[in-house]
Amino acid sequence: MALLKDVAKVCKSKNAGPFELTVDVVFEDAETFQRVKATGVLCAALFARLYNVPEEHVLFTPYDAAFAFKATFPRLVPAGDFGDTDVYGCQQHAPLLDVEIPETTR
């Protein structure tokens, strides 16, 4: 099994306004993207579990033309509010880095 950090070209997060985060995962080529997509591992349910938000609040979109996935979901703490540890949201992709990508498809 490979880890996402070993197969993705880019895995980054950023604010999508003060109340939401966006995570982008981009792959080098169509073959790798399609292999990861076929596993079904990257999905709204994964982001809901990793970021402790309801699955129905996760907007998950695969972008075949860009070999990428995008997920947008609510921040648990608004940007800049008391308790916020990442005002720009640029460190929130870390939980995804060790997600296991199986070799077999679903």
What does this structure look like?
- The protein has 106 residues and is α+β, with helices and mostly antiparallel strands.
- Helix content is 21%, strand content 27%.
- The strands form two sheets. It has a four-stranded antiparallel β-sheet, with helices on one face.
- A hairpin with a 4-residue loop joins strand 4 (59-63) and strand 5 (68-74).
- The longest helix has 10 residues, at 30-39.
- The mean pLDDT is 95.
H/E element order = EHEEHHEEE
Q: Please compute the radius of gyration using only Cα atoms.
A: 14 Å
**SS summary, helix count:** 3
**What's the N-to-C terminus distance?**
14 Å
How do the helices and strands line up, and which of them pair or pack?
Blueprint: E1 2-3, H1 4-7, E2 10-15, E3 20-26, H2 30-39, H3 44-51, E4 59-63, E5 68-74, E6 100-101
Antiparallel strand pairs: 1-6, 2-3, 3-5, 4-5
Provide a concise account of the structure shown.
This protein is an alpha+beta fold and 106 residues long.
Question: Features of this protein?
Answer:
elongated; 106 residues; 6 strands; four-stranded antiparallel beta sheet; alpha+beta
